[in-house]
Design brief:
It is a single chain. This protein has 202 residues and is mainly α. It has two domains: 67 residues, Helix Hairpins; 102 residues, minor pseudopilin epsh fold (3-Layer(bab) Sandwich). The protein is built from nine helices and three strands; from the N terminus they run H-H-H-H-H-H-E-E-E-H-H-H. Strands 2-1-3 form a three-stranded antiparallel β-sheet, sandwiched between helices. A hairpin with a 5-residue loop joins strand 1 and strand 2. The longest helix is centred in the first third of the chain and has 22 residues. The protein is globular. Bound molecules: manganese (II) ion. The site of manganese (II) ion has 7 residues, from helix 1.
């Protein structure tokens, strides 16, 4: 069985940038539903139910065809939200340091240029999806978009940072102003965690 992890902070911890009500609906509503639907889709599939969520997303071809789409969507929804909560926080550190900072500068010029490129990519997600910073198959940093709950994990990429641009992530506070939500998002990043994910890839 897959379980809903607690948020690693209070629902109100990201105020005023991400409001408490959005966090409650996002975690207790949306994320919880992905977990529930994933367990329901895999009922009776003991081996798949006991897999690590990332391994499941890497092995979708092993999932029976009649439930594969439902498993892909809900396993993605579960993993992506679990991942997202870990890279959010009080935003004490305004930007990454160390090896990740050096890598971002070498690929994008500097951190501000990276933010601009990431934002432009997030504005281009049509409908629901995510923008990611991943380490790709060649070991390079890459900004990439995924639709719906399709996962970078399933195509061999290692996510180190993301923004959820499904409307449920911002609509209560920002309505249709995705750009304002993206600008606010930079204030609530746990860069220590993003650095940790990056350092694990090398
Ligand atoms: Mn979401």
């Amino acid at each position: 069985m897959f379980n809903l992890p607690d948020l690693p902070f209070e629902y109100s911890a990201l105020e005023p940038f991400i409001d408490e009500e959005t966090m409650r609906v996002h975690h207790d509503g949306h994320h919880a539903t992905y977990v529930k639907n994933l367990n329901e889709a895999l009922e009776g599939q003991t081996e798949l139910l006991n897999m690590d969520i990332k391994d499941l997303l890497k092995s979708l071809d092993q999932v029976p065809e009649d439930i594969r789409t439902k498993v892909k969507n809900n396993a993605g929804g579960h993993f992506h939200h679990s991942f997202l909560w870990t890279i959010l926080g009080s935003g004490e550190k305004e930007q990454p340091e160390g090896k990740l900072s050096e890598k971002i500068s070498s690929v994008y010029g500097d951190f501000e240029k990276f933010k601009e490129e990431f934002k432009n990519s997030a504005l281009k997600v049509f409908g629901s999806g995510y923008t990611w910073l991943v380490v790709n198959e060649k070991g390079n940093l890459e900004i990439t978009n995924t639709p719906n709950q399709d996962s970078p994990i399933s195509v061999g990429q290692i996510p180190i940072f993301t923004i959820d641009v499904w409307e449920h992530a911002y609509y209560l506070k920002y309505k249709n102003k995705r750009a304002d939500y993206i600008d606010a998002f930079w204030n609530v990043i746990n860069w220590e965690k993003v650095e940790e994910y990056f350092n694990q890839t090398s």
